[in-house]
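agent> step 3/5: call structure_predict on target 'DoxX family protein' (Rhizobium changzhiense).
agent> reason: downstream docking stage needs a structural representation; sequence fetched in step 2, passing through unchanged.
tool.input:
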Amino acid sequence: MSNNVIILIARILLSFMFILSGFMKLTDPAGTAGMIAGAGLPAATLLAYVAGLFELLAGLAVLTGFQVRIAGWLLAAFCVFTGIAFHLPYASGTELVNILNQIMVMKNITLAGAYILLATVGAGAYSLDARRGAYAVA
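tool.output (status=ok):
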């Protein structure tokens, strides 16, 4: 299997969570707005919609291979920020909530690494970036 096929599979897998999450935030922002308000940030409902739109568009960019280097860096930063802002410190609730928050931080940091790697290697040959000649592909 070629590296370009592997990159395509990775893009599909990395896009799924953000496309779904963004769509859910846009159609029902209440839960996200509650988390945002709970973190002490202002304009929680507006920020929930902004987060949903960002997640949906960034996920679609990764899926289609459009501006993947930019989307990768933005998603990496988003993962680190949300992990820190919404899931630290661990000791903020019941034992189960603390365990879930710890898992979420680890997941976000791990995803940040995957998005940095994607931003570094690019979208591969099977992408809109390659089709429009944004950069050379191997």
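agent> step 4/5: record observation. The helical segments are 3-27, 30-38, 44-64, 68-87, 95-121, 128-131.
agent> proceeding.
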